[in-house]
Design brief:
The protein is of the alpha/beta class. It has six helices and seven strands; from the N terminus they run H-E-H-E-E-H-E-H-E-H-E-E-H. It has a seven-stranded mixed beta sheet with strand order 2-1-5-4-3-6-7. The longest helix has 25 residues, at about 1-25.
Length: about 240
Amino acid sequence: MNRKLAAWAIPAAAVPALLLLAFGLTRNPQNLPSALIGREAPGFELELMASPGARVASDEATDEIGSEDGLDQTQLVSEGGSTEPTDMLALEDLRGRVVILNFWASWCIPCRAEHPALVQTSQTYSTDDVVLLGVLYQDTEPNGIRFMQEFGGHWPSVMDSSSRTAIDYGVYGVPETFFIDADGHIANKNVGPVNWAMITQTVDSLLLERSARGLESASESEPLETVPERQDDTSE
């Protein structure tokens, strides 16, 4: 009798674990809640990736100059390999606009799947109201530029070289996209590729909320599109 009870003891003990596993398999990872939703978006000030129109240095030139001068590869993306001071972008600069913060990488296959929806987004909404901002994740600037040149798109991206911003946002992998309202709070999060329907539904809702609250962009600068190509300083 004891042997029979022992035989049933192990399967019975495994039932809760099996139920938990079954529940997990039915969950859509794109809809997993985030502790950040409803909270103020973590601030950052990061270097802007050069425009997709910038000429990327060849691998041979990168190796040669890097070995001789000890320069990082990300400094060799502009015309003639200029290393002039870089442009920075702070999230606070975008307060008053809806921000679509998209963590991506050139090596990320799902990022390619969502890219057409992001292109459509950048072509549909005015940057006075909505800013699509990429965050290059565990990647290099030359690779990011090549990706944008190949697949198109002219919205800005910033480089999270230390992954500090990704850590602050709890990013596990790419792509992950955060929707930040005009007041600077995270309204929604999507894990995996975004699609056009999801973007428009979320953004339009946030724009209506922005309008109802009478919020406007705090920036008086020109509409944000993409960082200009870096040029060599030819002044004497």
